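User:
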Amino acid sequence: MTGPSVPSPPAGRAAHPDPRAGQWPPRLLPGLWVDLGDWHSKRHVWLRTPAARFTCRHGCAYDAYGAADVAHLTEHVDTDHARDCPGPRSEEHTHG
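Assistant: Predicted structure:
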């Protein structure tokens, strides 16, 4: 019997480095929100799909839904944001 492939479950604790151990660079990036979702290990389905959102005070916004997209966003958000962010608007530079 063939059919759609079953999504792979997360690879366990090794796939999610502990931010307290200093292994996860985005931990210091303000504006990053991550929901790791809820994987049902017996039924092999997501009960709640992983999601992530990053917003900065300059108006940048990145969204990701699904395990692979969330992993990609959290791995690359710091470099992508550094490359794409327009920086502060001119009125943010004025003091007075």
